[in-house]
Design goal:
This protein is mainly α and about 70 residues long. The protein contains 4 helices and no strands. The longest helix has 14 residues. The protein is elongated.
């Protein structure tokens, strides 16, 4: 049985989108065609501080307000 190859995630681009543009892990994972847990593991391996639930909820609330 062939193994599944994961798409290459452009490290610098993913970090910039996550940190500077405040794109969620779920949205980035969907865009890159990978699972959110896989992308979370990559960000952790890259030593990127992950947002907590409170900060994520605040960002969602702010983005809904801006629409």
């Amino acid at each position: 049985m062939p193994t599944r190859r994961m798409p290459v995630i452009p490290r610098d681009e993913a970090i910039q989108l996550y940190l500077d543009h405040k794109i969620s892990v779920n949205a980035l994972a969907r865009d890159y065609g990978v699972s959110a847990p896989y992308l979370t593991k990559l960000l952790t391996d890259w030593k990127i501080p992950l947002r907590g639930r409170k900060e994520a909820a605040q960002l969602r609330k702010a983005s809904k307000r801006d629409q």
